[in-house]
Amino acid sequence: MGFGRPVAFPLLREHARRPWSGHAICLGRADVHFGHEALLKMAGLTGARLDPGVAPTPSHRDDLAARGCISDRSLFAALGFARLSTLDLSNFEGAEIQFDLNSAELPASLQQVCDAVFDHGTMEHVFHVPHFFANVHGMLKVGGRVVHCSPTANWIDHGFYMFSPTLFLDFYEANGWRVHALEIVRFDPQKQDAETPFFARYEPGVRIPPPSEHESFLTVCIAEKLEHSTAGVVPQQGYYRRTPGWQEEAEPEGLTTLALRPPFQPAGGNCWLADLSRLAADRGDSMTEPQRSPLRVLEDGTRLGPGHSVHDTIRTTGRGRYSHWGQTLYFSTSDNSDPNSNRRRYEVKVRPA
């Protein structure tokens, strides 16, 4: 599978923030579309430190080697990986691991075996996408990361699917992963060896000028598996979850609106804490009952949400997400402003203590 600048830049930026190491599994053999000098230049632009002791070797493909492109082994060793394995449906291009990612059962020999999974253009060729996600989850150790580089627009008949970035955000948020990067990449596939792609950080509702006749869009997502991460929660599309009234379930009986009084304690990023021990009679969510709390949060009378959100997502994304956990409310404001100074009124609907 092609591994060019559209993948390399996000990969190197991640390496600069959180260095790669250990065992990497590539889903399909990585055909690197740049040479060693280009890698050094990209590393310099992103602040990534490569292993200077790794001697570059030529690509396994004669046509790429003739253009000076390096091998996948060289690239991943330079990034700090001690081991690189390739997974494919067959032993195509010498894949060490043969496994069908459509499968519902991951063999014990592949359970929690790697520190990184690189999906640089594979998921769109796998018909059963939920099984794909589950198998990636199964292969990764806790703390391991997955890198997706998936087609988003102008890839007709390249695979079964083209994916919107909201799929990755909604799936990983619903399943309790930490999303480190989510970008939309616009580039000309015929010029990817020479031109730097255009990158835009994804935000829900973002609008990017459409690709020209020769350009395509990719989505690059990097997510980390946490101790509590899963792969079986079916997400609802974020666009609708953020739409007021779309999923208004019947409000439980006996809820009373009570004021939250500042000061609210900062909890990192966009997250703030409020003590509910004297307000709420209901117990909050827990690891065994993550949807237990009926509590609602209001900002100037308008309901925030979604509730039951992952705390790390409240910190990194915010935008009204909240969680009633134990006797504490973890919440964010609608525009990620400081609730201690934005002059808005915050209330909760609870069964009073």
Description:
By secondary structure, this protein is α/β, with parallel strands linked by helices. It has two domains: 2-240, Rossmann fold; 249-353, no CATH class. It contains eight helices and 18 strands. It has helices at residues 5-17, 36-46, 62-66, 72-78, 129-139, 165-174, 238-241, 311-316, and strands at residues 2-3, 22-27, 31-32, 81-88, 97-98, 114-119, 140-153, 178-187, 198-201, 216-224, 256-259, 265-266, 272-275, 296-299, 302-303, 322-325, 328-331, 346-350. The strands form four sheets. It has an eight-stranded mixed β-sheet, with helices on both faces. A four-stranded antiparallel β-sheet has the order 11-18-14-15, with no helix packed on it. It has a four-stranded antiparallel β-sheet with strand order 12-13-17-16. A hairpin with a 2-residue loop joins strand 14 (296-299) and strand 15. It is elongated. The relative contact order is 0.11.
Write the layout of secondary structure elements.
Elements: E1 2-3, H1 5-17, E2 22-27, E3 31-32, H2 36-46, H3 62-66, H4 72-78, E4 81-88, E5 97-98, E6 114-119, H5 129-139, E7 140-153, H6 165-174, E8 178-187, E9 198-201, E10 216-224, H7 238-241, E11 256-259, E12 265-266, E13 272-275, E14 296-299, E15 302-303, H8 311-316, E16 322-325, E17 328-331, E18 346-350
Parallel strand pairs: 1-3, 2-4, 2-6, 4-5, 6-7
Antiparallel strand pairs: 7-10, 8-9, 8-10, 11-18, 12-13, 13-17, 14-15, 14-18, 16-17
